[in-house]
């Protein structure tokens, strides 16, 4: 039996700049998954900004240790075509540390 991992897509992970992804990122995105911090604006704003900037998906790092259900505002423009996922705070911090430690020249 063949492993499904062989057919998995490999996509680079980029840190949002600004970290909250509430405004257009300063870094150019070309299909990366963008890692952002929760807060300062709604989930739909973050996802729309990330999608418009060229991200293929958005991972939102929760700012609390508890689980949190992502919801859209009732009047939100929910025409988002990229996946949006919230990560637990510790998992997001670990990913962020990994990126920071492995991208410095």
UniProtKB/TrEMBL annotation:
Residues 18-95 form the PA domain. Keywords: Endosome, Glycoprotein, Hydrolase, Membrane, Protease, Signal, Transmembrane, Transmembrane helix. One of its GO terms (molecular function) is aspartic endopeptidase activity, intramembrane cleaving. It holds the Pfam family PA. GO terms for biological process: membrane protein proteolysis. It comes from the Eukaryota. InterPro entries: PA_dom_sf, PA_domain, Peptidase_A22B_SPP. Coiled coil: none annotated. It is found in: Endosome membrane. It is a multi-pass membrane protein. GO terms for cellular component: cytoplasmic side of endoplasmic reticulum membrane; endosome membrane; Golgi-associated vesicle membrane; lumenal side of endoplasmic reticulum membrane; lysosomal membrane. Its main location: membrane. Intramembrane-cleaving aspartic protease (I-CLiP) that cleaves type II membrane signal peptides in the hydrophobic plane of the membrane. Belongs to the peptidase A22B family. This is PA domain-containing protein. It comes from Gossypium harknessii.
């Amino acid at each position: 039996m063949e492993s499904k991992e062989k057919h998995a897509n490999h996509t680079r992970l980029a840190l949002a700049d600004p970290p909250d992804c509430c405004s257009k990122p300063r870094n150019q995105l070309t299909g990366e998954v963008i890692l952002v911090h929760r807060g300062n604006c709604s989930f739909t704003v973050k996802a729309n900004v990330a999608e418009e900037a060229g991200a293929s998906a958005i991972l939102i790092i929760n700012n609390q240790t508890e689980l949190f259900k992502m919801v859209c505002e009732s009047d939100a423009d929910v025409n988002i075509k990229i996946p949006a996922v919230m990560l637990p705070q510790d998992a997001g911090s670990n990913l962020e540390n990994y990126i920071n430690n492995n991208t410095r020249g």
